[in-house]
Design a protein that fits this description.
Blueprint lengths: L2 E5 L4 H12 L5 E4 L7 H7 L8 E4 L2 E4 L1 H10 L1 H10 L1
Parallel strand pairs: 1-2
Antiparallel strand pairs: 1-3, 3-4
Length: about 90
């Protein structure tokens, strides 16, 4: 399972998303668009045109941003998605 999160400096929602994943003890790969602006077009393409950060992918499945991953966590579905992506 690979979790990738596209972030930017000074992004509060990016920080919250990373904290959530860290608290769940889930490793992730971070692509900071402030440091690697060339990766923005990759993120936009992978997220079907979304340009805001964070954009989160679990095993190449686009989850969305912080609001979406937070909603998945509140509903208990995030753990199921993480478990399924491990197998």
């Amino acid at each position: 399972m690979v979790i990738q999160i596209y972030t930017a400096n000074f992004c509060g929602y990016c920080t919250l998303a990373k904290k959530m994943l860290t608290k769940k003890n889930v490793p992730f790969l971070e692509t900071n668009l402030t440091l690697e602006p060339i990766k923005r077009s990759e993120m936009i393409e992978r997220s079907n045109g979304l340009s805001s950060v964070p954009q989160i992918f679990i095993s190449n499945m686009h989850v969305g941003g912080y609001d979406e991953i937070s909603q998945l966590e509140k509903s208990g579905r995030l753990d199921s998605i993480l478990k399924e992506s491990k197998s």
